[in-house]
Design brief:
By secondary structure, the chain is of the alpha+beta class. It has 26 helices and 13 strands.
Amino acid sequence: MSSKKRPIIFGMSVFFFCSYFVYVFGIYIFDSQNSYGEFVNKRKIHMLNYLDLGKTLIEVQKLEDLEERLFEAREDHYFDYYLLKDSQKNILFYNSHDGKLEKLNQKFTRFNEILEFEDHVYSTIEVQGYQLMIGFNRSRARYVQLALEYNYHLLFREVVLVILGFLFITTYFFRDIKSIIKGITNPKARDFSKAKTRSMESQILTQSLIGYEKRHSKLHEEVDTLKNQVLPSLRSELESGKIPPYQFDCTLVRVDINNFSEMFSNYPVETVMEVVNQFLALSARIVHRYEGFVHEIIGDEILFYFKENSSLDSRELALSSIRDIFSASEGLNIKTKSEHGFSFHVKSSLAQGMLRFGRQVLGYNLSGTPLIKTVRIISEIFEQEKNEVLFCSEIASLNSKLFQTRFDKTANLKGIEENSALYKVIHTLGVEDVLKNLNANSVSSLTYFRSDKDLQTIFEYLGQNVQTLTKTELLGASRALSTFFSEETSLETEYKYLDLLVKIEKLCDKDNENFKVLASYVTLGRHILPENSYSPGLATVLSGLLSNENARVVANTVDLVTHLEGDDEMEGLIKLDQARNNRVKANLIIQDGYSRLDKKLISNLKEMLTSSDPLQQASALYAYGELMKHHSEKDLVYLSSNIEFCNLMKLVKPLVKSSNEMIANQARSAIKKSQSIENAA
C-alpha cells in the first residue's frame, strides 16, 4: 500500500499561497532596498525640522508642547529617539524605540551638525543651556520594518483578494472533478452522465468514465449470461482454485421424467414445458439445499452429484434429495391430473465413483464411469405410473437408519462385463419418525431433512418440547440444521423458526445457561433465512434480541441482521459506539461496513487493531477481512478508492508475527481475504 497522500487541491493551495507570499514580500523588500537612500534623506529632513521646532519652543519655554510634538512625531516614525536636558544636564524627558536610556544619555560636545554612524544618525542643538538631541536608526532592517508597518493593510488586502479569487477559481473548476471523485468513491452516486463539467479535462475524464461504466455493465451482463449458461457444477469447479485436470469421489444422480415424449406430443407444449420447468427448478433448489451440484439439464433430465466429505455420506445426501424430489413430483402429479389430465412421475438412478474435471474439446467438462452407469441403470426402470429409483450394490451397502433397501433384479448393463445387482428403496423414515425417538445419538439425522415442510415439522417439535429436551439435544439439532444454506424459504418456515426463537428466549429467563442455546439458534437463521429477506415479524423478534442481556446473543443477532441486510427496517438496532463486547463491536462494524466504509468505522477498526486486548485485535482482524472480501467481490473500484481503509493493511500485516496464535491466524485470514485488492494495488 502507498503512503498517505494529500488531496491535490490541498497541495496546490499550499504551494500557491507559499509561492505568492514569497513573491510579494520578496518584491516589496527589493523595492524597499532600492528606495533606502530616499528614506534616509527624508528622515534627516524630519530630524532637522523638529530640531528647529525644538529651538523655537525652548526659547519661549513651552517644553510640554515640545515633548508632545516630539512624541507624536516619533509615533509617526519621523525619527526613532529624542532627549532633552536642562542647563544642569538633568534629563527632562526622552523616548527611544527600544525603551533604553543608556545609549541616549551621553555627554554631547558637538552641536548643530549631523553625526552619522553605521546604524544610526543624530544631531544635537544647545539653546539657553538646554540640549536637545534627535536621531533615528538608519539600518536597512529598520527601514524594511517601517515600510511593512506603513503598508501592511495594503498587503493584507491584496493577499485576501488573491486568496478569495484562487478559492473561487479552484472551487468553480474543481467542483466537477470533486463530483467525479464522489461518484467513484460512492457506488450509490455513480452516475457520471449527470456530472456537469466546466473544463475540457473534466469532460474528457467524465466521458472516459461513462465509457468505462458502460463497458463494466456490459461485462457484468455477459458474465451473468454465461453464469446462467454454465451450470453450478462446472462453475463451482472453475472457481474452486484447483488446477485441472483433477478427480474427486462423488455420488451421481440422474432423474428423468416418465412419458415426456408422450406428454410433449399429446398436450399443449407450453403447458407441458411449464410443468417441466417448475419441476426442474424445484429439483435444482432441493439439490442446492443438500449441498449438491447440478451438472446438466437436458430436456426432461437433470444430472447432479454430491461430493464425498468427512462429515456427511454423499450416498445418504443423494437418497435424501431423491426423497424430496419424489415428494415434489407427487405434488405436481396431483396438479397435472386435476388441471391438465396427465400424470407426472419420474425415475432416477444413482452411481458412486470418481469423476474427472478437465479440458474436453473447446472447454472444460466432467467425465467418468458414474455418468455412463446411471444411463444404463435408469434404462432398467420400466415402471411409468409411479416414482422409482434404482442403484447398484455400492449404494445399497450404505448403513443408513433412514433408508431401507432391497435387491430388485440382476441386469446386464451395457459396457459392464459382469451382471449387476440392482437395488431399490423399500422404506424411508420420515422426519416425524426421527423426532419420535430423538436423542443425543439420533439428532444428527435431522441434517437429512431440508425441505420446507420437514423444517417446519422440526421447528414445531422443538418449540413444543423446548422445556423437556436437554441442552445437548437442542444444540445437536441446531448443528444438524446448520450444515446448509437456503436460497429460498417459505413464510411458514420463517414463522415456525421465529416462534422457536421466542420460546427459547423465554426459557433463558429461567435458566441463564440457555443463552448458549439461544445464540446457537440465532446463528441458525443465517442458514434457514435467505439473504435480503425481511418481514415485520422478523424485525420485531430480532429487534428484541438486539437488546438481550447476553453479549453472545447480541453479537449473533447483529451477524444475522447483517446477513439479512434488513437493518434499515430494524428498530432498536444498537449503535457501534455503544458496543463494549468485542464480538458485538466486530459484527456491527461488518454490518455498517457492508453499506459504507466511513471515517468513523475506519477509526473504530484502527482503535481495535492497535488495542492491547487480544480479543479486540482478533475481532477487528476478522471484521477487516470480511469487509475486504465483501467489497472486493461486490465493487473493487469502490474498495480501491477508499485509501484510508486499504491502508489499515499496514496494521494487519505485522500481526501475522504476533506471539498470540489467535491473532496471527486472524491476520493471515484477513490478508488472504484481501488478495484481490492487494493484487489490484
